[in-house]
Task: structure prediction
Amino acid sequence: FEDAIQLSRLLELTLTGKEGGKAIGRVPMAGIPHHAAERYCAELVSRGLSVALCDQVETTPAKGSLLKREITRVLTPGTVLEEGLLSAHRNNWLCAVVCEQSRWGLAVADVSTGEFRVTERDGSDLLHQELLQVDAAEVLWPSEDTVQNTVPAWCPNALRLTPLPRTPFSAQEARVALLERFRLASLDGLGLSEMPLGLRAAGGLLRYLDDTQPGSAVPLELPTTWQ
Result:
């Protein structure tokens, strides 16, 4: 359907199709060779798109049914791990932002190296500069508007902005995410007690990693703070 048409245009592929019956009509289709998937995925991710990977999860189907398939990975600009999709000359930062009036919390992680940092400061102009400085590959933020993709003033226009539901960025959800991910009994000692917005940003970032890579926890270092 629409994805096949977009794929054929972006990757200069031949658009084919198959008949879907009288109710549907002809269904547009486009595909790539399996062995060339990484090259094509790299091109799509570099354009700011996300790619869902769906694999077989069983070898023997139940009687009379097809082999079961599930989404096993979602490639996004800030979550790629494959060497062929990464630049050797810079970090690939995934960022998460939580703002309340002029105060903001920022969590940044490079999933290819495991580095994980958190900060909290004042001033939207300073946040704008910080995101430019780290050259974020993808910026997550809790928003009521997850469809229209309205860009807030603090986000540089050139960056990929991913609006998400607010729940994973709540204080309680964030604490649970950090405790479970790093198998901690307490968050004392992480330096986040004076950074409630930074803590919430870190929790939302961890939840996003779990959602895009189900069944395999991305290895991250304990979060460090900076000013």
